[in-house]
């Protein structure tokens, strides 16, 4: 296959890594609804589940495979033949199936999770890829805990699984440990040292334990990865996964990176709310891109600058990510310019003196009432009229 070298593939794992969060479990029909919305968003790969883990997860992969057309549907396995058989079976209706198999790559995991050796782990990795390849062409391999793995051993593992037939190699920072330079450096090392690395797509899969998942993912892309894995709203194990909406908007906002995705960013707001509601996980108000305050301007200095020229305080247009609109929130920190803007919106054009009178009363009210709404503004105007 010929790849556009600047295209970044988007791999969504909301329904697998995201769904591992306690309390976020979904029914199969809820998962189908989200999968269809992910297809409308334009994601390239939907990781639909971990079929061996439960009959429900298996059935969800089957039903999602029937429900979407364009995206690749991916099923997770451990590096063993039993898991792979079940995953292959779950993908039988997928138009574009992918098996995502893998094993630990750090000495921590090799010794203390698998009680094994590097040699044995390498052999299991290769066997899993070769075995999966007999049933499915598209095989993604994950080197779990690659963030803490010895980079020379990681390179050896990645070289071996590409030779065994892996089409995508996933380099997870499973514990969200790396700094962006370290993570980007790992990807660069693989690019420079793994034979035939260009036969596979390098994928970044970062967790957010130190709040660096997005920064690490972008660093990985800068050093040659071309698939990014993440979830909507950044949900996921512990502190979560990379937020897809953040990485996509970083690439759009920084065209000098020269990278692009096929995502319809205008769908972000809607899918964010759908995932939040169905998974019962509120989106924090100050969450980048989709939080309720992401486009709300509340201090007087910012509001004044924004009203003079939106671009003074807006690097993304809210409508570009499907947000209803930017908001000028009236608080005790707001200035006359913001008040005037809202009064005009309500049909009241006041002269300087009139505005000054209303502004004084507005400040008194805003000190005691946190959310000033349109009714409050109309009352302030009416109050001024009866007092004059
Ligand atoms: O974080 C991780 O390492 C994973 C793998 C299973 C891909 O989720
Ligand atoms: Zn993960």
Domains, number = 2
CATH superfamily of the largest domain, called what?
Aldolase class I
Annotation, overall tally of beta strands: 10
Report the portion of residues in β strands: 5-15%
Question: What's the overall geometry?
Answer: elongated
- H/E element order: EHEHEHEHHEHEHEHEHHEHEHHH
Reported CATH architecture of the largest domain: Alpha-Beta Barrel
Q: Look up the CATH topology of the largest domain.
A: TIM Barrel
Q: Supply the helix-strand structural class.
A: alpha/beta
Small-molecule binders here are: 3-methyl-2-oxobutanoic acid, zinc ion
Largest sheet: 8 strands, parallel, barrel
Please give the radius of gyration in angstroms. Answer: 25 Å
Strand arrangement in the largest pleated sheet: 1-2-3-4-5-6-7-8
Highest-level CATH class of the largest domain: Alpha Beta
Low-confidence stretches: none
Distance between the termini: 77 Å
Helix percent band: 40-55%
DSSP summary: helix tally: 14
Main traits of this protein?
388 residues; alpha/beta; TIM Barrel; two-stranded parallel ribbon; 44% helix; 13% strand; elongated; binds 3-methyl-2-oxobutanoic acid; binds zinc ion; transferase
Could you walk me through the main structural features you see in this protein, from its secondary elements to its overall organization?
This protein has 388 residues and is an alpha/beta fold. It contains 14 helices and ten strands. It has helices at residues 28-41, 55-67, 81-90, 107-112, 118-133, 151-164, 180-193, 213-222, 244-253, 268-279, 300-308, 336-345, 352-368, 374-387, and strands at residues 9-12, 45-49, 72-76, 97-104, 138-144, 168-173, 201-206, 227-230, 296-297, 327-328. The protein has an eight-stranded parallel barrel, surrounded by six helices. Strands 9-10 form a two-stranded parallel ribbon. Helix 2 crosses helix 3 (81-90) and helix 6 packs across helix 7. The structure holds 3-methyl-2-oxobutanoic acid (KIV) and zinc ion (ZN). One of its GO terms (biological process) is L-leucine biosynthetic process. Its EC number is 2.3.3.13. Pfam families: HCS_D2 (PF22617), HMGL-like (PF00682).
């Amino acid at each position: 296959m010929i790849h556009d070298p600047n295209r970044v593939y988007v791999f969504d794992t909301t329904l697998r890594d995201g769904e591992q969060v306690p309390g976020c479990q979904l029914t199969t029909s809820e998962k189908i609804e989200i999968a269809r919305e992910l297809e409308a968003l334009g994601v390239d790969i939907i990781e639909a589940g971990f079929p061996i883990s439960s009959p429900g997860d298996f059935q969800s992969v089957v039903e999602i495979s029937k429900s979407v057309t364009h995206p690749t549907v991916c099923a997770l396995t451990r590096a063993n033949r039993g898991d792979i058989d079940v995953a292959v079976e779950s993908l039988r209706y997928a138009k574009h199936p992918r098996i995502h198999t893998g094993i630990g790559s750090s000495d921590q995991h090799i010794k203390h999770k698998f009680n094994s050796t590097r040699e044995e782990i390498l052999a299991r990795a290769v066997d899993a890829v070769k075995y999966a390849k007999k049933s499915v062409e598209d095989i993604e391999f994950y080197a779990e805990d690659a963030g803490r793995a010895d980079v020379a051993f990681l390179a050896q593992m990645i070289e071996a699984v590409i030779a065994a037939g892996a089409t995508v190699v996933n380099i997870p920072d499973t514990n969200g440990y790396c700094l962006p330079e370290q993570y980007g450096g790992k990807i660069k090392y693989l690019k420079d040292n793994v034979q035939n690395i260009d036969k596979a797509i390098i994928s970044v899969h970062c967790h957010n334990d130190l709040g660096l998942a997005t920064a690490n993912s972008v660093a990985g892309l800068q050093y040659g990865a071309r698939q990014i894995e993440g979830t909507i709203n950044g949900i996921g194990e512990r502190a979560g996964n990379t937020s897809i909406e953040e990485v996509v908007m970083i690439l759009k906002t920084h065209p000098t990176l020269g990278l692009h995705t096929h995502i319809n960013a205008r769908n972000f707001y809607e899918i964010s709310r759908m995932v939040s509601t169905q998974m019962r996980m509120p989106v924090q108000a100050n969450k980048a891109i989709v939080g309720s305050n992401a486009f709300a301007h509340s201090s007087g200095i910012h509001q004044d600058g924004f009203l003079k020229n939106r671009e003074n305080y807006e690097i993304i247009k809210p409508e570009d990510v499907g947000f209803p609109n930017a908001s000028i929130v009236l608080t005790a920190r707001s200035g006359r310019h913001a008040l005037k803007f809202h009064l005009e919106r309500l049909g009241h054009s006041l002269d300087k003196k009139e505005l000054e009178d209303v502004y004084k009363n507005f400040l008194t009210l805003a000190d005691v009432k946190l959310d000033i709404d349109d009714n409050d503004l109309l009352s302030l105007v009416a109050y001024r009229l009866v007092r004059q």
